[in-house]
Design brief:
Glycosyltransferase; 11 strands; globular; single chain; two-stranded antiparallel ribbon; 6% strand; 410 residues
């Protein structure tokens, strides 16, 4: 018996999805877009509409619409309106990173957030929401023109508002979410080019970067894609660019590699033989370095290049991504280890991350497993937690929204 095949566990996951989606409704900003919630589930006074949060919540409520949650479609439309309106830079193209009551408060063009525009639009297309297809076309055009580096087979990082200045930095956080977005875009558009580009990225990351560093994946690079192994050593708790290897990203890359492999195969395309083994190797290293390694339960946030913990806080998103990766690897291999990991990691999340009284999940615990907020205060969004309740109930591919649209939910 494994929870992954148990109807009662699937019913629990369904209830947890609904609990999360009820909590997240408060993130709607009346002026347009969505903001990050505090620990009590409230929008702080004067909350800005942040691009990445608006996109993630639009994605989540697209999934909710496809699951039949009443009232969710209006939240999707609210997100689309903000992405076509107040968050859009109508003068220079692309999207502002954040807007307040009086206009942009951060006018950078961030690769990370633009990846989520593609994901949100792709999910809204699957949910058949008005203007979603036009938004997706617009987002993919921006990715094509501004962020895709065909020579490197990778994506660029952040730009100034008018695109005249670009960072010399390259990062695997934004690149990873581009892979996720490309998988969703391939399902939404039927265009193979997005799978081809996802494969080019994954080949470089999973067949070169990861094995050459003992499966502790470098996150930070210069403009020539040379690893910067000491990057942010003096700011190890950075929420988006922490020093060292990030345990949760190891699990995400493993999951996305399996999903890409099966997406290629289902379309009759060639998936390199190394993909599944590389996913397993990165998964194993992330579990080895991250889980129960410092005398307390749970996953540390980051480790150094010898595998020693650096930031020992337990982030909810790391647990969520470990759960999702275990579910996908189990579906792909049926090996008992992944089912056992899945159960152990849900047990930990249920004991420590899930806030059954206040709602949603505690986003951060300190090394003694008490609620903290040094890296991620509050309960910002639903994305990681909601996907952890859905991925175990769906086939490995297609992407979540496309799978729900195809009536694949158990």
């Amino acid at each position: 018996m494994t929870w992954l095949t148990t109807p009662s566990h699937h019913r629990w996951l369904e209830a947890e999805s609904a609990r999360l989606l009820t909590f997240g409704r408060a993130s709607r900003i009346s002026r347009g877009g969505f903001g990050g919630l505090d620990a009590a589930g409230q929008l702080p006074e004067g909350a800005e509409a942040e691009l990445w949060i608006t996109c993630r919540m639009t994605h989540c409520y697209s999934l909710a619409t496809l699951m039949g949650h009443p009232g969710s479609a209006a939240l999707v439309d609210h997100g689309i309106d903000a992405l076509r309106g107040r968050l859009r830079d109508h003068d220079h193209g692309g999207w502002f990173a954040a807007v307040g009551e009086d206009g942009p408060t951060n006018d950078a063009k961030q690769a990370y957030a633009h990846a989520f525009v593609v994901l949100a639009a792709s999910s809204a297309v699957a949910a058949k929401r008005p203007d979603a297809a036009e938004l997706l076309d617009d987002a993919l055009a921006v990715i094509e023109e501004r962020f895709w580096d065909d020579d490197a087979g990778m994506t660029l990082e952040d730009f100034s508002r008018d695109w005249s200045e670009s960072e010399d930095y390259r990062g695997l956080n934004s690149t990873m979410h581009m892979v996720e977005a490309f998988l969703a875009a391939a399902d939404a558009t039927g265009n193979r080019v997005w799978l081809d580009r996802a494969l080019r990225i994954v080949e470089r990351v999973m067949d070169r970067f990861a094995p050459s560093h003992d499966w502790r994946l470098p996150e930070h690079f210069d403009a020539d894609w040379t690893p910067l192994l000491s990057y942010n050593e003096d700011d190890p708790k950075h929420p988006f660019r922490p020093f060292g290897a990030t345990i949760g990203h190891g699990f995400e890359w493993a999951r996305l590699t399996v999903q890409l492999s099966l997406s290629l195969q289902q379309r009759g395309l060639v998936a390199p033989e190394w993909m599944l083994q590389a996913a397993r190797s990165l998964y194993d290293a992330s579990a080895r370095d991250g889980w129960n390694v410092d005398g307390e339960r749970g996953f540390v946030y980051t480790v150094n290049w010898e595998g020693e913990p650096v930031v020992r806080e337990r982030m909810h998103w790391v647990s969520a991504e470990a759960i999702a990766a275990a579910a996908v690897l189990w579906r792909a291999t049926k090996l008992p280890l992944f089912a056992e990991n899945y159960q152990d990691w849900w047990d930990f999340a249920g004991d420590h991350h899930l806030d059954f009284e206040g709602g949603s999940w505690w986003h951060e615990l300190d090394p003694q497993l008490q609620v903290a907020g040094t890296v991620w205060p509050g309960k910002v969004d639903l994305y990681h937690a909601l996907q952890a309740t859905l991925i175990p109930r769906l086939p490995v591919t297609p992407s979540l929204a496309a799978s729900l649209a195809a009536s694949n939910l158990d």
